[in-house]
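Quick start: what a row looks like.
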Amino acid sequence: MQEKGTISIHTENIFPIIKKFLYSDHEIFLRELTSNAVDATQKIKRLASLGEYKGELGDLTIDVSVDKKKKTITISDKGIGMTADEIKKYINQIAFSGATEFVEKYKDKGDEQQIIGHFGLGFYSAFMVAKQVEIQTLSYQEGAEPAAWLCDGNTEFEIKTSKKKERGTDIILHIADDSEEFLEEHRIQGILDKYSKFLPVPIRFGQKDRQVEDGEDKDGKKKWKTVKEDNIINNPEPLWAKSPSELKDEDYLEFYKELYPFSEEPLFWIHLNVDYPFNLTGILYFPKLKKDFEVQRNKIQLYSRQVFITDEVKDIVPDFLQLLHGVIDSPDIPLNVSRSYLQSDSNVKKINGYITKKVADKLGDLFKKDRPSYEQKWSDIGVFVKYGMISEEKFEEKAKDFTLVKNVEGKFFNIEEYKTEVATNQTNKDKSVVFLYTTDEEKQHSYLETAKKRSYDVLVLDGPVDSHFINHVEQKYEGVTLKRVDADVIDKLIDKDEKKESVLSDAEKEKVSAAFKKAIGDDKNNVTVEPMATDDMPVTITLPEFIRRMRDMQAQGGGGPMMFGEMPLNLAVSVNANHAFTRKIVEAESEEDQVALAKQAYDWALLSQGMLSGKNLTNFINRSVELAVK
């Protein structure tokens, strides 16, 4: 048998297009060819199970091998094989899918989703790295003759009789000069580890060394020797392909170690398994994030029938859940997936919604069934939940009950619980419930102490998304206002319209105001002398709340325009008319002494806000020493 002909295509010069543009990364050729080998193997298993193939299946392991001298890479399977006619049908007619026809023929007998590969452009990815490709194949069909196909990267091919003795197909790539990197074993091992780690048929890539015990030496110590064993690179039965009822916690933890060898144990996980209206399996793990969540992205791996596609799962997984780890496998997503496909495909949108619902349901169950355990995990999962509340409306609807806030005493509440908790004591004159919060308990300690004296409760909101979460709470919860505990004097933060009398006369107020204005030396700062509680700070410095929030967002990685970090700050300086130190300023012997004391009080206020540094801090310390020894 010998035949020559021309490959049937509908686009001129398709091979240069394949070589350069079929995939952005040329290493993908090995994924396509091993997937096709798995497809052929799955087909022979399926035919045997249906009684349409009576022979022995034998060892179905797929072999990948490299010959540096001959400059070849070979992918060998013991699958269904092909006849010469099938080669002409499936290989020579680009874009005709052998797998599609096979599925159509056997779809009524079930398990059609087991078929992975699609002969067509996937096979022709071989020409991205090969100057010549040959196929040596023998069909499973009784009496079939072995056939060989050769093509050197143009539209001409040759078919002839092969010497192949065993059922299956060998794809032999004669590597081009500009692709010899793929003749390095470590390079092939890396590609197989990346794309074929969980293929459903064993993939063998040569052999590897393993250390085994070899008795004991004369001192009774164990001896070891090196033995050779098959280098099986994949786990054909990954955990997500099994039923959750078969699995224990230990199984999930072991699989997590397999995926992420150097990570801490996850907090918990969700096993996904749905077959309508789309097919999806997978396991999503909640890792311990703390506050470094940005570096954790791209940890979810996307597969199609156990073939790795990508770890960039945007559009398939909601943005806030890209912080999770794990695996998603869906046959409804093609191997050559593109961003435009993901953005437009209806199944992808359904998958996105399904995953959001499953995560919300899991968190809700944990909260209801074991709230103490849920609260212990909150420092890790709080980022997911708050981010989800802000960015996904459907998630927010479910998450309201299990989104928690924590106060400085370490107690947890959901938003409605907390509103009820503080409403009696922290409702202002406008009937709005004020949630006080701190972003830094150490720096804002004096303000926390002042709030404590009023029996006010204070939340800790110091997480990476809390500046945005604060705005979200105010928008979604009517009658709730959030104010940072150091944003103003405490009686202005929760203004109950309670009037206080000043112990200073109007003339004394003017004297104090003048001293502070001269001490500050900046007309842009607004100085007021007001009656406050005697135990309030002598001077309080505040920023407008809008500017403060924008600066917080900017500090936490975005959201506030950069101009808020560059423009001069207009500070509000509130002097406590009823504080003993203010009386000391009034009674100072000279204007110079009044200004010096005002400067000291002003610097105290700056220091409490973390706004005193450099030369000004040094001058403050020296001045404090001088005042102490007078």
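That is the whole record. The mean pLDDT is 84. The chain has four domains: 2-205, 239-375, 403-493, 506-629.
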